[in-house]
Design goal:
The protein has one domain: 3-Layer(aba) Sandwich (UDP-N-acetylmuramoyl-L-alanine:D-glutamate ligase). Helices cover 34% and strands 17% of the residues. The protein is built from eight helices and ten strands. Strand 7, helix 6 and strand 8 form a beta-alpha-beta unit. Helix 1 crosses helix 7 and helix 7 runs antiparallel to helix 8.
Length: 253
């Protein structure tokens, strides 16, 4: 078994890229939670504002087909199905000390998005591939950088989805399209990024590593522009595919 999950992966990848990153979420009380916490401590990622609730950690069973990850089943987030992350005043002050906040559809933070938006920290949101027009309209106005998995859409459908996100107030909207790479829209132009072709060991975390490296480079070196940031994202995503799990640290299950 390997530690992972979209927001957690983001914190790990950002730390790997030289940033000071933290993770704010809910831990269960099983052996899986203990392993994840131990790994984050080893990686020196701050988890001081995390909560602990009695119950089972979220997990997904993943198969590998020629190095490509295939999700088989999951427990739908474990305890996260029943316990929303309650953000206290100290949590909000803590969040405001960072340059960027990243969350996702599977963080179950929908109700808190307006509150997070009001904190004034730029927000990145991963919609995965499980989104509806209604969901995009609900969450989109509270997001600065949106990422959507669009392999199931045609190119014209993907472009229209990105246009919708910009119309909702996003600064940038990105569609990841598997082997076809990534497509970005900034309200004026579309940018295409081809993937770095490699013999993948495990593609788990490829999308997360792409968006993390893209945002880290964009925010650090804004003067280099969008294309340079996209290239950095593709490069880092390729390297993450050479590691088992999202970022390694496997344990016998």
């Amino acid at each position: 078994m390997y530690p992972g999950g979209n927001a957690l992966n983001f914190s790990v990848y950002a730390q790997m890229l030289g940033e000071s990153a933290a993770y704010l979420g809910i831990f269960g009380t099983d052996d899986e939670a203990f392993h994840i916490k131990a790994v984050l401590q080893e990686l020196e990622i701050d988890t001081s504002r995390c909560k602990e609730i009695e119950g089972e950690s979220g997990y997904a069973l993943v198969g590998l087909e020629n190095g490509d990850r295939v999700f088989l089943e999951s427990n739908e987030g474990g305890i996260r199905q029943y316990h929303k992350l309650q953000l206290e005043e100290e949590d909000m002050k803590y969040i405001q000390s960072f340059d960027l906040l990243h969350t996702s559809k599977y963080s179950y933070m929908e109700e808190a998005m307006p509150k997070l938006r009001a904190a004034g920290v730029p927000i990145s949101f991963d919609f995965s591939d499980d989104f509806t027009e209604e969901y995009l309209s609900e969450i989109g106005p509270n997001v600065d950088f949106s990422f959507l998995s669009c392999s199931h859409l045609s190119l014209s459908e993907a472009k229209n989805t990105l246009k919708k996100m910009i119309s909702l107030g996003n600064k940038l909207a990105v569609a990841t399209m598997g082997a076809d790479g990534a497509l970005l829209y900034d309200g004026n132009s579309f940018y295409k990024q081809k993937p770095r072709l490699i013999e993948a060991v495990d593609t788990l975390g490829a999308g997360d590593s792409f968006l993390t490296a893209f945002l880290v480079h964009l925010l650090q070196y804004e003067q280099e522009g969008i294309e340079a940031a996209l290239a950095k994202g593709a490069e880092f995503a390729a390297s993450s595919c050479l590691v088992e799990g999202a970022f390694g640290y496997g344990k016998a299950y």
